[in-house]
Design brief:
TIM Barrel; 8-stranded parallel beta barrel; two-stranded parallel ribbon; 16 strands; 39% helix; globular; Aryl-phospho-beta-D-glucosidase BglH; hydrolase; Glyco_hydro_1_AS
């Protein structure tokens, strides 16, 4: 497929990972325990992700895939060399808060943790790969959960600001693209995984979550302020788990419900990008008797420190309805849930495959915010089989990405300002939603199974050379 709509000069092609899904070495070199280190595989996982957890330490009977993951901590040079071979212009990664401040509120940072990321950024720079760094990709030090129930407490605002300032000062000459919180809207759907929130029995869920959201939004604004002061030539953005909701029918009630579902996510970016709470959020608080505690200075902090760009993930669109009969066919394959859409297909894990929805979502975000967009996650989780000759033919992944990249090119033609594309995960990693390794996204296969068995050796898939050519032609050849 040839795409004559050439992507902009300097477009940041690359890939994206998260510390907790690749690094492993979960307590090595002084790192503290995090919420994600407490997510086991199996039936318990979803309930814990949703905030139903009583014991904040690993259970010896359970398997925790993040503890070793793909051991990127010890293999990053080999992996980055493979990314460089593909021609990556950028690489999105996250810093683990607990590697820098093991308890979250330590007096001084952990030098070994700081040095690890120094070495990692140096390796990227050696290969002319631009780091794109997420400050918090779901990681919260467990000690902050034990003492404060994480972001429910205002105390985390100052602690996060200290952490942000520490890494800005340390890496100011090495990192020019930053994001504050990964998929910040995940807080409302998977509170423990997304933000370390434990939902205590009898607690008002909305009150707890929107109070935590306010604290994250203020912390994000303070990080933006610090970044602009410490690294004046840096760009710092927010990050949304995106994918618009379609109304199931043209019934105005369905259309209105789809708008409300979109707004659940837009709420966070409205505040981060526009600098104030939207009217619909204020009405929601009023209608649900929520009393969000805010400090007198918060309004001005939010207003004065908006983001430079909008980062977002896109995997699938969603569909919603007000008809109880239609709702019976809803799927929970994706975290957000969706009524089955008869016009699109699904992945093996029940995620809608909707390339046109990618174009629609990009246009929707740009129309709404008029700020540059950065596609920082997009990809297909699938089972890969190794052929008798040792090759891995993942044509289904190439097809998925080809169609999505074509629609991204169309969005750029529509006038949408997109500065880069980092597909999710360029190397096989632990799935955030299921904890599985068999749900693979990468151009690079990692020899590891769901139980943690395997050599961790790396092997190129067919998609490796395909993506290498996409980058080499700046998206002209898909």
């Amino acid at each position: 497929m040839t795409n004559n709509k050439r992507f902009p000069e300097g477009f940041l092609w690359g890939g994206a990972i998260a510390a907790n899904q690749v690094e492993g070495a979960y307590l090595e070199d002084g790192k503290g325990l995090t919420n994600v280190d407490l997510l086991p595989t199996g039936e318990k996982r979803r309930g814990i992700m949703e905030g139903h957890i009583t014991d904040l330490k690993p259970n010896p009977e359970d398997f925790y895939p993040s503890h070793e993951a793909i051991d990127f901590y010890h293999n990053y040079k080999e992996d980055i060399a493979l990314f460089a071979e593909m021609g990556f212009k950028s690489f999105r990664l996250s810093i683990s808060w607990a590697r820098i401040f093991p308890n979250g509120d330590d007096a001084a940072p952990n030098e070994a943790g700081l040095q690890f990321y120094d070495d990692l950024f140096d390796e990227l720079r050696k290969h002319n790969i631009e780091p794109v760094v997420t400050i918090a990709h779901f990681d919260v030090p467990v000690s902050l959960i034990e003492r404060y129930n994480s972001w429910e407490s205002r105390k985390l605002v100052d602690l996060f600001e200290k952490y942000s300032i520490t890494i800005f000062e340390r890496y100011k000459d090495k990192v020019k693209y930053w994001m504050t919180f990964n998929e910040i809207n995940m807080l409302l759907h998977l509170p423990f995984m997304g933000a370390g929130i434990v939902l205590k029995e009898g607690a008002n869920r909305d009150q707890v979550l929107y109070q935590a959201a306010h604290h994250q939004l203020v912390a994000s604004a303070k990080a933006v302020k610090a970044c602009h002061e410490i690294i004046p030539d840096a760009q710092i953005g927010c990050m949304l788990a995106a994918g618009m909701f379609y109304p199931y029918t043209s019934n105005p009630d369905d259309v209105f419900k789809a708008m409300e579902k979109d707004r659940e996510s837009f709420f966070f970016i409205d505040v981060q990008s526009r600098g104030e709470y939207p009217g619909y959020a204020k009405r929601f608080f009023k209608d649900h008797n929520l009393n969000i505690k805010m400090e007198p200075e918060d309004e001005q902090i939010l207003k004065d420190n908006t983001v430079d760009y909008i980062g977002f993930s896109y995997y699938s669109s969603r569909t919603t309805s007000t008809d109880p009969e239609v709702l019976k066919n809803a799927t929970s394959g994706n975290v957000f849930g969706s009524v089955s859409n008869p016009y699109v297909s699904k992945s093996e894990w029940g995620w809608t495959i909707d390339p046109k929805g990618f174009r629609i979502t990009a246009n929707q975000l740009y129309d709404r915010y008029q700020k540059p967009l950065f596609v920082v996650e997009n990809g297909l989780g699938a089972k890969d089989e190794i052929n008798a000759d040792g090759t891995i033919t993942d044509d289904y992944r190439i097809d998925y990405l080809k169609k999505h990249l074509n629609e991204m090119g169309e969005a750029i033609e529509d006038g949408v300002d997109i500065i880069g594309y980092t597909s999710w995960g360029p190397i096989d990693i632990v799935s955030a939603s299921t904890g599985e390794m068999k749900k693979r996204y990468g151009y690079i296969y990692v020899d590891r199974d769901n139980e943690g068995n395997g050599t961790l050796s790396r092997k190129k898939k067919k998609s490796f050379d395909w993506y290498k050519n996409v980058i080499a032609t700046n998206g002209e050849e898909l």
